[in-house]
């Protein structure tokens, strides 16, 4: 298997040991693989109205975006302005780079050290294991890449178009929460954002291992381009639901920073990717992130969260993952005064 997930995690896969015997901290209840009640289609929003619509249509579109962000934390956008040709070529190049031998891609010089990731090095039980591989690529790797390959060219186009869409949506959400819409262009500049190319290989124990562990995103918002295999699930009304793929749409989800910045108005919702026994899955995500020194501040007389920098937030997440095997996230930053 490429990457060597089966080999490296053989003990976890085939020697069932309880968390107590392994001295593993208790993991959240949401990590249990519960039955999915139904497959649903996320709210679908035609964002072309933001640019081409009359004032009434623009306002209705803004309300739909804000409502979906409050009630779901996830929504889909169509007529989003991203070129289908760029999206299709992005998928082709992504598949090609993942087809390279493990030894080559794990030491790839295409991107900075540590960009290629696979499995979960810190996993001590099955619920902490992500059966996937990814290239997590800083925008600086793309913008500064002088090796004009097809991959770097397509990633640059994908990033530029994602950036424009992310700014558009973030400014709408800022307006609807009564905050300054220029915050994002001032703090979420090109060099602070990321692209992530994901591959989820077939898994021998799909009922016991995640493709990607339950988590929330540590950014303002995420733009996801996925194939039609399915596997993405999220929590809605205290239960897991499966997201029905839509070939016309991109998926948008709210991240932790937007939940904190909006004082809880918009929801950063826990989500996961399930594995498949026979079919691999691909997706590409763009993450709208601020600079490390940017301060996330609730504009409220009764802020739910204390002020914190993006650097502080990331460091806390990394410490928790290393110590506990999973991310704690925003609960670490609750305001002790309220």
Using the 3D structure, state the CATH architecture: Sandwich
> Strand order of the main beta sheet, please?
2-3-11-8-13-6-5-4
Total individual domains: 1
How much strand content do the residues show? 15-25%
CATH homologous superfamily title: B-lactam Antibiotic, Isopenicillin N Synthase, Chain
What would the average pLDDT be, to the nearest integer?
90
CATH class: Mainly Beta
Number of helices: 12
How does this model look, in words?
- Belongs to the iron/ascorbate-dependent oxidoreductase family.
- This is Gibberellin 2-beta-dioxygenase 8-like.
- By secondary structure, this protein is an alpha+beta fold.
- The chain has one domain: Jelly Rolls, CATH 2.60.120.330.
- It is 33% helix and 20% strand.
- The protein contains twelve helices and 15 strands.
- It has helices at 5-8, 10-14, 19-22, 49-52, 55-71, 84-98, 102-105, 139-143, 150-176, 183-187, 256-261, 310-324; strands spanning 39-40, 44-46, 74-78, 116-118, 133-138, 194-200, 210-215, 221-226, 232-236, 239-243, 250-254, 271-274, 281-288, 295-296, 308-309.
- The strands form three sheets. It has an eight-stranded mixed β-sheet.
- A hairpin with a 2-residue loop joins strand 9 (232-236) and strand 10.
- Helix 5 crosses helix 9 and helix 6 (84-98) crosses helix 9.
- The longest helix has 27 residues, at 150-176.
- Residues 17-22 have low confidence and may be disordered.
